[in-house]
Specification:
Helix content: 25-40%
Shape: globular
Strand content: 25-35%
Order of helices and strands: EHEHEHEEH
Radius of gyration: 16 Å
CATH superfamily: TT1751-like domain
Number of domains: 1
Number of helices: 4
């Protein structure tokens, strides 16, 4: 039987919306901008870029008609490994969803305030790239 253990306060999704048109032509442009931030961080490690839209389409799943593209940048920014429960909360991902008039970029809060601050900076800085 599965054991259920609370490990952190209820999680929240944090994110931004970036209007189109702008410097990002498509979801891949946003992914590239996030990858640059990951590469600049000395402790971040990219795991994968996952095309969620393609996967859902291939398995015959339901896709909201307004979704034009959906990507996950999956990475690790874990600065410690306090035990097995921490493994269930990792890796992290930043989700990029392209809609007709905007990009939605969001992430699930991690239990670490330092990690959240870093990821929040990366996501918020995408707005600055627009200017």
């Amino acid at each position: 039987m599965l054991e259920r253990k609370p490990v952190a306060e209820p999680a929240c999704v944090c994110g931004i919306e970036i209007a189109k048109p702008g410097p990002f032509q498509d979801a891949d442009d946003v992914v590239e901008a996030i990858l640059r931030r990951l590469e600049e961080h000395p402790k971040a490690r990219l795991i994968a870029v996952f095309d969620h839209l393609e996967h859902t389409w291939e398995v015959g799943g339901d896709i909201a008609p307004e979704v034009l593209a959906a990507r996950h940048v999956v990475f690790c920014l874990g600065l410690s490994l306090p035990g097995p429960a921490a493994m269930a909360l990792r890796p992290l991902s930043i989700a990029i969803t392209e809609l007709e008039r905007q990009f939605v970029v969001n992430f699930l809060e991690a239990p670490s305030a330092d990690v959240n601050a870093t990821v929040a900076r990366w996501v918020a800085s995408l707005v600055e790239e627009q200017r």
